[in-house]
Amino acid sequence: MLTDPIADMLTRIRNSIQRKHRFVDVNSSKLIKAILTVLKEEGFIQNFVENKDVRLTRVFLRYDQDKESLVAGLKRVSKPGKRIYVKWFQVPIVRRGLGTTVVSTSQGIMTGKKARQEKIGGELICCVW
């Protein structure tokens, strides 16, 4: 049993990028699929496919021509032991706009940029750059 499945997913992606794997399997849930959707829309991952038989999601990682990952770093911000909530104007800008934050709002999971545009605060899940 995992106490923090989001941190587990981020760690699996980080480890797979270091080993230059094409894909990685992570546990599946609605929250993880929503986070992966944001990462796909922002261009950090190529795609993901859910396998409902074994409750796993296969994440296809994205690399450039030199086989360098487009993800330089992943950081879990809000943890089960210490939740971090921010107002819309407190959502951090990662790496001067080159990265993105993932925020869980009342309107669903979205990027920090979209949360600032819609003036919605929420739980700061992770930062990706």
CATH C-level name of the largest domain: Alpha Beta
- As a percent range, the share of helical residues equals 25-40%
Instruction: Specify the CATH architecture of the largest domain.
Output: 2-Layer Sandwich
Number of domains: 2
- Tally of individual helices: 3
Distance between the termini: 29 Å
Radius of gyration: 14 Å
Strand elements, count? 8
Q: How does the overall form come out from the CA principal axes?
A: globular
Strand proportion: 25-35%
CATH topology of the largest domain: the name is Ribosomal Protein S8, Chain: A, domain 1
Order of helices and strands: HEHEEEEEEHE
Mean pLDDT figure: 96
Low-confidence parts: none
Main pleated sheet: 5 strands, antiparallel
List keywords for this structure.
five-stranded antiparallel β-sheet, 3 helices, Dna Ligase, domain 1, 2 domains, 129 residues, single chain, Ribosomal Protein S8, Chain: A, domain 1, 26% helix, alpha+beta, 8 strands
How would you describe this structure to a colleague?
It is globular, with a radius of gyration of 14 Å. The chain is of the alpha+beta class and 129 residues long. It has two domains: 5-61, Ribosomal Protein S8, Chain: A, domain 1 (2-Layer Sandwich); 74-128, 2-Layer Sandwich (Dna Ligase, domain 1), CATH 3.30.1490.10. It has three helices and eight strands. The longest helix is centred in the N-terminal third of the chain and has 14 residues, at 5-18.
